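Table 4 source record.
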Amino acid sequence: MIRCRKFNRRIHFIKIIKGKDEDGYPKDNEKLLKTVWASVRSLRGKEFFNAAKINSENLKVFNLKYFKGLETNMFIKYNEKLYNIKSINDLNENHKEYEIYASEVSSSE
């Protein structure tokens, strides 16, 4: 059973569309795909130390209700920061809840 009260943060799923500005310079545009309620947490304990081995110190875990169409080429926007989806786990494979691991996109990417 999913407890809705734990989903207390708004997150946005977006795609980055490559384009050009009015002067012809490359410009990335965000296309909003879906806005949902989720729980958000940072890594802790063993998860944190395992992530540190691969230099992923800005990793977050997002839990949310299942919806069709979620892909790893999407980004998550949360608190005005962009997160790159690293893995999607359909918990218990029963299409009720996702657990998503995502790393913060640095401004140099």
